[in-house]
Design brief:
- 2 copies of one chain form a homodimer.
- The first copy, chain A, has about 240 residues and is mostly helical.
- The first copy, chain A, contains 11 helices and no strands.
- In chain A, helix 1 runs parallel beside helix 11 and helix 3 runs antiparallel to helix 4.
- The N and C termini of chain A lie far apart (about 55 Å).
- Chains A and B meet through helix 7 and helix 11 of A and helix 7 and helix 11 of B.
Chain lengths: ~240, ~240
């Protein structure tokens, strides 16, 4: 058992070790997607389901915003909500994700309704929203730290998808371009906050558990896509059936 | 679109039609389990994961109990909690499930910690707890109506498992015996309540959605077991790895 709190840099190393093991860059569905081995129907299922995650990100950020104690912290989290919801005349991440879904052949209204997503997607994403609502501010901030690992997965995904699918172009993947600068800005802030505020053993263990939980949220979404749309192809009752 | 509320019996028929399509008796994992085509490791994974569902049932019932308006309703729901948590000298469903898990070769402390369950199990079960906590009393009661269909699945499961697995005996499956009388008592009450109180179109649609949601909760748990332990055998990081 741990008997002394870690130094902040050791905590950072422990967080990065969790990502190295559990981040969904290691999931078979990501490999298929990136390597060009997905069918168009599988890419559609991914875009449709991932939309629900995108759509709920500002909801979870808003519930954290409502609990943050200082203007500085609230400004930081308000910026995140703006990134996803947009400002007048400048579409945010949700709108850009809809463009992606339309670009791979889905109907906007069907995507926005989220009526055909996998139950597993809904349960995993809602678990994230509830986690942020119910856990400490420190744990809620720590659960955003998967963004430490997202520039790599985004770079792989965009280059792999453009190279391997002739029906996907850079415009369709425009969602990801701003994320390459937004995500590091987000994770730099969150990492500094966590390193400063997780001082006791209990706090540090809670922070590590929060990041493991969040990796599970992302991993589970790809598990659902794999079972339903790759192998063995068991689409649950009521979920999207590709044309 | 529906323009008139259904008569109570038509509502019941619509509820039963949802079960006929979506209840997890139709899931491939149930068929494997019942037909004796599961390995001991797969039965262990099922018992381990299902424990978390069993353990959270009285938690969801307690959150409903706290919102029920009359002594009559609270007595009914208190009985359900007693069924699962037991009374002094008489073990409840949770304890009987642990016996089942031990009977198929699992360690009690490992099961009780729920530390090795699939994230998908946790997300699905927690979704049920949150649903009951956050939706109307009518929807919460309606979500229990999967018990309308459970005597059949229990009968299939018990007879099939005893016939097909020589390492499982009736004592190990003692969990299920009281459920054969408790479940109909529960569902008779809940069905009568729903038929009496779901009068408007909106209420009836909400009740039907609640039952669909609950079928998804049960189905998704078997999806997770299938992907991890049957095919393609993708056990997520940190979950139970059979010996």
């Amino acid at each position: 058992m741990t008997t002394m709190p870690m130094a902040p840099d050791a905590l950072e190393a422990a967080l990065r070790a969790i990502g190295a093991e559990r981040y969904h860059i290691h999931h078979p569905f990501h490999r298929l997607l990136h390597d060009g081995r997905c069918t168009r129907a599988q890419v559609q299922a991914w875009a449709l389901n991932r939309y629900y995650y995108q759509a709920m990100i500002p909801v979870k950020d808003a519930s954290l915003l409502a609990r943050l104690p200082t203007p500085e912290l609230r400004r930081e989290w308000r910026r995140r909500i703006e990134d996803h919801d947009g400002v007048a005349g400048k579409p945010g991440g949700i709108e850009r994700w809809i463009k992606l879904a339309e670009g791979v052949g889905l109907d906007r209204a069907m995507v926005e309704s989220a009526g055909l997503i996998l139950p597993q997607t809904r349960f995993a994403v809602d678990a994230y929203v509830h986690f942020v609502r119910e856990k400490s501010v420190l744990e809620a901030i720590a659960s955003s730290l998967t963004e430490l690992f997202s520039p790599t997965i985004i770079a792989e995904r965009v280059s792999g998808m453009i190279r391997n699918y002739d029906w996907i172009d850079e415009d369709t993947l425009a969602y990801f371009t701003p994320r390459l600068t937004q995500a590091p800005q987000d994770s730099d802030f969150a990492l500094a906050y966590v390193k400063e505020h997780a001082r006791t053993i209990d706090q540090q263990q809670a922070v590590l558990a929060a990041l493991r939980f969040k990796c599970d949220v992302l991993w589970s979404q790809l598990d659902g896509l794999y079972l339903a749309y790759v192998s063995p192809g068991m689409i649950p009752p009521g979920a999207f059936v590709p044309a």
